[in-house]
Specification:
The complex is a heterodimer. By secondary structure, chain A is mainly β. Chain A is built from no helices and 11 strands. Helices cover 0% and strands 55% of the residues of chain A. In chain A, strands 2, 4, 5, 9, 10 and 11 form a 6-stranded mixed sheet that branches. Chain A has a 5-stranded antiparallel sheet with strand order 1-3-8-7-6, with no helix packed on it. Chain A starts with a strand and ends with a strand. In chain B, strands 2, 4, 5, 6, 9, 10 and 11 form a 7-stranded mixed sheet that branches. Chain B is globular and about 40 Å long. The chains are: A mainly beta, B mainly beta.
Chain lengths: 114, 112
């Protein structure tokens, strides 16, 4: 039973446009969410996170939105750049992030075309 | 700043062989983890440790053992490798009670 779902295996966008990556979760105990980016042959690198006490968090071109009632979060990348092409993983944790265990989605491959 | 270092980067084993994967972190993190990633799957937690001398099972622990004798090192062992353990293995670490987890670059393991 998947507790964190990324239903789009892949996404293709044009350079300069917005990329929107989606993530749904089923466990109501999750209250801290992270996005990781992964390039081939490298480990995941942390991108941005959000606590359930917020509904939005921004860091430069990256914004994460959280809709707790829908158990849905999304990552917006504006503007998208070719260097953003990677696999993006959504991950969730409980107890405000102090619960050390992360549950990952299957990932979405983002391709940004020049 | 090395961060999380995994050794080796890749390895090919025969069924039944044993080996140990090493993870080392230089950030003085209390928590360390071993994950595996398979095609079309997210990262799944194998074992984790919340401090030197302590380990616990994750989501997919069968066929693996771990040890945390030193705070900076977390070892993952395969006693009798099986083809189903062909995967990419990632180690991660973080400070107690804080996120995010920091990952190494992975060990690609093939078992024939």
């Amino acid at each position: 039973d998947q507790q964190v779902k990324q239903n789009s295996p892949s996404l293709s966008v044009q350079e300069g446009r917005i990329s929107i990556l989606n993530c749904d979760y089923t466990n109501s105990m999750f209250d801290y969410f992270l996005w990781y980016k992964k390039y081939p042959a490298e480990g995941p690198t942390f991108l941005i996170s959000i606590s359930s006490i917020k509904d939005k968090n921004e860091d430069g071109r990256f914004t994460v939105f959280l809709n707790k009632s829908a158990k849905h979060l999304s990552l917006h990348i504006v503007p998208s750049q070719p260097g953003d092409s990677a696999v993006y993983f959504c991950a969730a944790s409980g107890r405000g992030g102090s619960n050390y265990k992360l549950t990952f989605g299957k990932g979405t491959l983002l391709t940004v075309n020049p | 700043n090395a961060g999380v270092t995994q050794t080796p980067k890749f390895r090919v084993l025969k069924t039944g062989q044993s080996m140990t994967l090493l993870c080392a972190q230089d950030m003085n993190h209390e928590y360390m983890y071993w994950y595996r990633q398979d095609p079309g799957m997210g990262l799944r937690l194998i074992h984790y440790s919340v401090g030197e001398g302590t380990t616990a099972k994750g989501e997919v622990p069968d066929g693996y053992n771990v040890s945390r004798l030193k705070k900076q090192n977390f070892l993952l062992g395969l006693e009798s490798a099986a083809p189903s353990q062909t995967s990419v293995y990632f180690c991660a670490s973080n400070s107690a009670g804080t996120m995010p987890q920091h990952f190494g670059d992975g060990t690609r393991l093939s078992i024939l």
